[in-house]
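Good morning,

Both structures are done.
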Amino acid sequence: MRIGIIATELPPAVGGMQEHAFHTASELARGNAVTVFTRTNPGIGDTPFPVRGVLGRDLAAAISHLRAFPADVWLGLSAAHAMLVHWVAAPVVLYCHGNDLLRGAMVPRGGEAGAGTPPELGESFGLVRHFVCNSRATAGILAERYGVGAARCTVVPPGVDARFFVERPDRKPGGAFELLTVGRLTAAARRKNVDGVLRALTRLPPDFPIRYRIVGDGDDRPRLERLVAELGLSEKVDFAGALPNDALPEAYARADLMVLASTVAEDDIEGFGMVYLEANAAGTPVLAAASGGALDAVRPGRTGLLLPSPDPEAIAEAILSVARGDIVFEAQACRDFAAAHRWPAVSARLERVVARAAGAP
């Protein structure tokens, strides 16, 4: 198949969306003619697929490039890419992540940038051939808000990269319990609830040996650092910053528990939560809130814990239950669950969906 992919988020920018776009295109390119259309001057290096940086301020020129490409099918990697249906003749498949459905961002249908009337998502969705959602939670939003039923939607979770399947180092008896969070430390991403974890630490016994490592960076880090000082946690909390890709698997493997107990906002949810699977790939169990895509990404009692409420008291209680051995997780069970989400298996499911939409065998 000749597949045109719209991916406005690509490496070297760092984030889950960028990783998802790169691996999706790379895997589909193994057996298909894939071309990725992205922003102008994307700045990426060598890729196993051609990249065309044509999506800039000149919208008319971008549309011209898309219309000229002889695709059998188009794959838009965000609900916001629904505008494709107004520009191209080939069938369009949309991959939805959750927040892209809640926020409803759209691009004008035609003309110069800023011209034209941005169509409602529902209007464009009626012309989309098929939808792919990263979780059942996202599929539920698609159905409830836009009336897209199960016949036009397939749940295909993101994949986990092979580099995360590493061995855990030997634990030293009597060492501190190692807690880890991986995520963006931005004001826009406060739902990741690092505040809640920090406040949970103050509810642990004063002599409880624990180290909390926070991996990530952003404009909210100074506020969190001040909060650590205010709570008297400076000797227990380490801000590691944004780690390079080759260092992140080791960070997961060193941890005894990876925690991301996200809260839910009206227009902001955890659509899936790849960090849960990345931690599991290293044999590390996870702690999450029972909401959004975490319901698909965590198997309670097997790969981690799901909290009914992500408040500090509940987080503290869960940390203690794992640290004291009241709840025990097997590293291999965590790895086995993550292995079912390796990229080759996930992309094969996505390729079948795309092929059906294109009318291919």
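Second structure follows.
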Amino acid sequence: MNPSPVFSAVAGALFFLQSAAIQAADWPAYRGPNGDGISTEKLNLDWSARPPKVLWKVPTTTGFSSFAVGGGKAFTQVVRDIGGVPREICVALDATTGKELWAADLAAGKGGYGGGGPGDGPRSTPAVSDGMVYVLTPDLVIHALDSATGKPHWSHDLVAEHAAVNIKWSSAASPVIDGDLVFVMGGGPDQSLLAFNKKSGQVVWKTGTEAITHATPVVATILGERQVIFFCQSGLVSLAPKDGKLLWKLPYNFKTSTAASPVVSGDIVYCSAGYNVGGGACKITKEGDSFTATPLWQTPGNKDVPNHWSTPVCKDGYLYGMFSHNQQNVGPLKCVEIATGAIKWTQPGFGVGNTILADGKVLALADSGDLVVVEASPESYKELARFKAVAGKCWSTPAVSNGCLFVRSTEEGTCLEVLAP
């Protein structure tokens, strides 16, 4: 018996909705749901035939905070003048329309954070989870807010409560959530690395005597064990998320500022910094319950593989990112083999923006506001599409959620529809 046309139409609609639900996902934190800058959503990236549709565009006039998207809202951080006083603000926008839903006043803003030029401001990105949004200010105060209203639930001043020592240009790291825990870097002796219960705000563990950096930690599973990896001034420090137990350390050089996050690919961990530090990678091995980090390679200097603050993405053993130190408007996009440091190709003209991996393609946001789709292949640079997303300086990272790209600069933020046909 053949199904009726009405039944077929309904079944087709239900299949489409189910497929969309499977493919779509929130982008709830800095560099996405897994902190690796990767989205598996099916997208339309053939922009010659079907350019992105601008759903909305709003002013986002200060700072380098990226968008976090969850529960139908897009969150970011800015500085606003309130009564003649600069204030740090967490803003919640309707993800579909761009309408501002609430703005939470967090603290007195510095007005100028130093080193960022025009539009300088907060660099941290909020993280949203289970009806709450978590914000780390440049002065190392972590706030937990109601994601629906912006009302405060709890907060901790890491300087006052945990003897944190801030760094030049103030903190740029974002809070990282894994399960019921929120991880932050900032504290004094024996409490530099902290985990809070995301619901109650209680300290779950604190450990380490480390000088902090601007780098956001990452959570990954290596050789079957979950771990949170902090990039401190001493180097990489890996801890067990549940109790803060030290798993392994890798000494790594520090000079002036470290701001790019570590990148994990299987049992290899990559890290890099500007200021002539350069990039390198280590291999993690495990014997019994003991981990060891063994250096694979390191290339110092600002010429080859420095990541000033742009964290690369990794696919099939190759890094794709903006490898340069402070080369605004001209710095190159490169492909680098993570196991060896070999540079496979270089394409100038991107500056110091950021990359993500979307639908198997590299999505590069140049610091000029151009959004460029590039084939994720070590063979050669192959540009597939280009679109002018925003005006202003883009030192933030794009976000992908529910068939849309969320991009912001020091002037404006936008939502671009790129639903797959």
